[in-house]
Design a protein that fits this description.
The chain has 4 domains: 2-221, no CATH class; 277-444, no CATH class; 464-540, Gyrase A, domain 2 (2-Layer Sandwich), CATH 3.30.1360.60; 569-722, Glucose Permease (Domain IIA) (Distorted Sandwich), CATH 2.70.70. The longest helix is centred in the first third of the chain and has 37 residues, at 182-218. It starts with a helix and ends with a strand. It contains 26 helices and 22 strands. The protein has an 8-stranded antiparallel β-sheet, with no helix packed on it. The chain is of the alpha+beta class.
Length: 723
């Protein structure tokens, strides 16, 4: 359960990064636009002739300011779309469209409830008895002020609906609306009711958020210290976005009235003040307490750590490690991206990461104490410091105080890291054993360490079956597509000559069939799991091609099938036909795999009646996704497969109406499926339908009982058990 929760939180954190990724660009536009249209800045730097009112550059900068503001003003919608895309497993574009629809539906439903209950008046104005800031205009809709939380609620909910329903099958009359087309429909219906529910629930949540924000804001400098420590400590787990985002974007991070509007969230407050900078004496340090401290350790502290690692490296490795550490330090200083350095602490010397967490947390508190109010879009590098600190002026940001604190931090990092590296003989870059490569570690290395992958095979995989199938198909580079039907793995390859049948059969396949560049590998009912595992494996498999000369070929060793001795039959089970039609021996099936009994033994029936019935009392083990096949277990213990037609998997479920579901108990003669015989006759290569026993033992043998016309329920074949 803990692993599942952790996995979901990681996915949520990753999904936040899609809308967050636009913030640096939007912030750059807003920062430049606001800074160079500010009358004080223009007058201070004597730029009136170039940037003054009426110049082309001034007009361009005004537009840049408005474009940047538009992104920040519509962050809830961007989060709705971004989170839906990030959390959807397949067909992400459908989830994005559904999120937009659901977002508008939810807000218009809330607006309707507000009008019905007199919170919004007939002329569109807000009633005087409504608490200021609780109702806002969202894309022209007067609705409850939900901020980014509203977008996240939509994004997570739509993604859940999408993952649940994007493959749904509907009756033939409604089949046009099945699959991914159903997702916007169900999202519209669900979020109409979510909007109605939010009218009653969100005011309570608003009060709670305001109280929590007040608690955080009222906790003073100690609260800022705890915030900083927790945020940096969560970085290795990828959960820091989940933690800090409410402080940046919602009322948890405080509220403030800017230019007559109630603004929520530390980052939003800063950018609102930036857009109205001419009326702001000093930006709010209570709002920027959640990020201003980052400039101290990202521009100054971590480069000090890099210098310490360079100075303590082995002499013969200093030249090599110097280039690596210099580039990592420069990246941290300019952009605030600290991964190359921070993850090296965690990977080779966790105690250094503990030091980093404590010092970084203290930096947030120190910036708050010193009233430093420098904003940022993504991370605390020099680019953000220049735009949102230096250009805004020291009077508004107190950015100059970062420099002396930063210098102190540089030496703190340098001396503490140097002492611990030498004292504990930590294997930081440049101090590895002589047989180890000098490198900076990345998040991928950390994830690999956390998952404890110890497999030393060529491809580093713990799925040898998928690896063997890939090699048997000529390697990932030779595979064009992977699919499956009820029993066969259907693959398309670029060069059929590279396929190794013997190797494929050694993976447990009962047969391999070639049709041009198509390869069908017969595994039986478990093929869906094999396909899923193979697709997962191919995502990370090396993109190489195996030739028959490049590796040892597995020689096929097929023992001669000895004739079953006719000594004594100890038991016989009779299986009835599930179909009314024409029965025949399985060898007459117009398909090599079925005729060759690669997937089991039994008989074939060509249906003349549309109803497929249970052949015996038993349980439906599985209904294939495309409805053309049913796995069945009789009460007598026979594992069966009812496969309707040949190559009917290609029809995608059309022509079939299934009445049963996985795990359902049935009696002999109960209807399980209805066939559209006219449609199938026109679209399938053959209606001949194999009725198979898929897991026969060596001492079990099929004996055909009926050849020719047969009715459902009549005896079709017998399974004889020999001594």
């Amino acid at each position: 359960m803990k692993d599942k929760i952790f996995e979901v939180l990681q996915r949520i954190g990753r999904s936040f990064m899609l809308p967050i990724a636009i913030l640096p660009v939007a912030g750059l536009l807003l920062g430049l636009g606001s800074s160079f249209t500010n009358e004080t800045t223009i007058a201070t730097y004597h730029l009136g002739k170039i940037l003054g009112d009426g110049t082309i550059l001034h007009a361009l900068l005004v537009i840049m300011n408005k474009v940047g503001s538009a992104v920040f003003d519509n962050l809830p919608l961007l989060f709705a779309v971004g989170v839906a895309i990030g959390m959807a497993k397949k067909e992400k574009e459908v989830s994005a469209l559904s999120a937009v629809i659901a977002y508008f539906v939810m807000n218009i439903s809330i607006s309707g409830m507000l009008e019905i209950n007199g919170k919004i008046l007939g002329d569109g104005s807000i009633s005087k008895d409504v608490l200021s800031g609780t109702i806002a205009s969202v894309c022209g809709i007067n609705t409850l002020q939900m901020g980014v939380f509203g977008g996240i609620i939509v994004g997570l909910g739509v993604a859940a609906l999408h993952n649940r329903f994007h493959k749904i099958q509907l009756p033939n009359a409604l089949s046009f609306f099945a699959g991914s087309r159903f997702v916007p429909i169900i999202s519209t219906i669900v979020y109409m009711f979510v909007g109605i529910l939010m009218y009653f629930v969100w005011p309570v949540v608003q009060n709670g958020i305001y109280s929590l924000g007040g608690l955080v804001t009222g906790s003073g400098y100690f609260g800022t210290l705890i915030f900083g420590i927790v945020k940096r400590a969560l970085i290795p787990f990828g959960l820091h976005h989940v933690f800090y985002m409410p402080f940046w974007q919602t009322a948890v991070g405080g509220t403030a009235e800017v230019a007559g509007q109630m603004v929520q969230g530390g980052q939003n407050i800063f950018f609102a003040q930036l857009a109205d900078a001419s009326h702001v004496t000093h930006f709010s340090a209570d709002a920027t307490r959640y990020f201003s401290g980052e400039f101290i350790f990202m521009i100054f502290g971590l480069p000090g750590a890099a210098l310490a690692m360079y100075r303590t490296a082995k002499p013969e490795k200093k030249k090599q490690v110097g280039g690596l550490l210099f580039s990592a330090a420069l990246t941290s200083m300019l952009t605030g991206i600290t991964e190359p350095i921070e993850f090296s602490f965690l990977f080779v010397a966790p105690i250094l990461f503990v030091v980093q967490v404590i010092l970084a947390g203290a930096a947030y508190m120190i910036a708050h104490i010193l009233n430093i109010a420098v904003g940022l879009t993504f991370s605390g590098g020099f680019l953000d410091l220049f735009l949102f600190g230096i250009l805004q002026g020291n009077d508004k940001t107190s950015w100059l105080r970062i420099i002396p604190v930063g210098i102190i931090y540089f030496f703190l990092y340098y001396f503490i890291f140097s002492f611990l590296i030498k004292k504990l003989n930590l294997k930081t870059p440049g101090r590895e054993d002589d047989d180890q490569e000098v490198k900076l570690y990345t998040k991928a290395d950390v994830n690999a360490r956390k998952s404890k992958k110890t497999d030393s095979t060529e491809n580093g995989t713990d799925d040898p079956l998928s690896a063997d199938i890939t090699r048997g198909l000529g390697g990932k580079k030779n595979i064009d597509g992977v699919d499956c039907c009820a029993t066969r793995l259907r693959c398309t390859v670029f060069n059929a000559d590279l396929v190794d049948d013997a190797l494929l059969k050694s993976t447990g396949a009962s047969g391999v069939i070639h049709k041009g560049n198509g390869v069908q590998i017969v595994y039986g009912p478990q093929v869906t799991v094999i396909k899923s595992n193979l697709e997962d494996y191919l995502e990370t498999a090396p993109d190489i091609e195996y030739t028959k000369d490049s590796e040892e070929t597995v020689e096929e060793d097929v023992p001669t099938q000895e004739e079953q001795t006719e000594t004594k039959v100890t038991k016989t089970i009779v299986v009835s036909s599930p179909i009314t039609g024409v029965a025949a021996d399985l060898s007459t099936a117009p398909d090599e795999a079925f005729a060759g009994r690669m997937m089991g033994d039994g008989a074939v029936v060509t249906p003349t009646d549309a109803i497929v019935k249970a052949p015996e009392d038993g349980e439906v083990v599985f209904v294939f996704e495309t409805k053309h096949a049913i796995g069945f277990m009789t009460d007598s213990g026979l594992s069966m497969l009812l496969h309707i037609g040949i190559d009917t998997v290609q029809l995608g479920g059309k022509g079939f109406e299934v009445f049963v579901e996985n795990g359902q108990k049935v009696k002999k003669g109960d209807p399980m499926m209805k066939l559209d015989l006219d449609y199938l006759a026109g679209h399938a290569p053959s209606l001949t339908s194999p009725v198979l026993c898929t897991e026969l033992e060596d001492n079990q043998k099929i004996r055909l009982l009926k050849d020719g016309e047969i009715k459902a329920g009549e005896e079709l074949f017998a399974v004889d058990f020999y001594e």
